[in-house]
Design goal:
Length: 193
């Protein structure tokens, strides 16, 4: 069972890398497990070359419970999302270029298309944590801005990247891809004048 979930995360990571939504060894993905545990990308592994073994088990505070490498430094953020949203089953966090560019200059992502407005339903807000890693107190502040019964949550981190949570990995990845597409269309439409 665990190996199957690790492979699902590996396939998702490789897909996001091919789409140029994450380069190098940044970003992370996770799946909720039972009893306040999650399967999350380990530190220093790349979306483009990760193996199934690069996804490790940690508790919602980011403490490892099994695996060959330490869990991502963003594990406490993932844990905070899972604690706040019982419907969240998976999280995608990446440093996609267009969404990150928009987050540098906007307070929320503008709906660029009717499609993004229909699918995202609510504005994608930007939070500034003043750091490359989200501290537990910043995670708590971000989570306080959302209804606990939201079907999904998505937000941007200023000078950092995007975070998308969904009921499963497919939904989380779709939301992340839609946010990046929306940001790209916004940037290109501004260039086009």
């Amino acid at each position: 069972m665990l190996e199957t979930l690790q492979r699902q995360l590996q396939v998702c990571a490789r897909s996001l890398h091919r789409q140029q939504m994450q380069a190098s060894d940044g970003g992370n993905l996770s799946l909720r497990l039972e009893r306040e545990r999650m399967l999350i990308k380990g530190s220093r592994s790349s979306f483009g070359s990760c193996t199934a073994r690069d996804f490790v088990v940690a508790d919602f505070d980011g403490r490892p419970t099994s695996g060959d490498s330490p869990p991502s430094k963003e594990s406490p953020l993932h844990g905070a999302i899972y604690r706040r949203f019982s419907a969240a089953g998976a999280i995608v966090h990446c440093h996609s270029p267009y969404a990150t560019a928009c987050a540098a200059v906007m307070d929320e992502l503008v709906f660029s298309t009717y499609h993004s407005e229909i699918k995202l339903k609510a504005p994608v807000r930007v939070f500034d944590t003043g750091s490359y890693a989200v501290a537990p107190e910043d995670a708590a502040r971000i989570m306080a801005g959302y209804d606990a019964d939201s079907p999904f949550v998505a937000f941007l981190l200023r000078a950092h990247g995007l975070v998308a949570a969904g009921k499963d990995l497919r939904q989380a990845q779709n939301i992340a891809e839609l946010i990046e597409e929306t940001a790209k269309i916004h940037v290109l439409s501004r260039i086009a004048g």
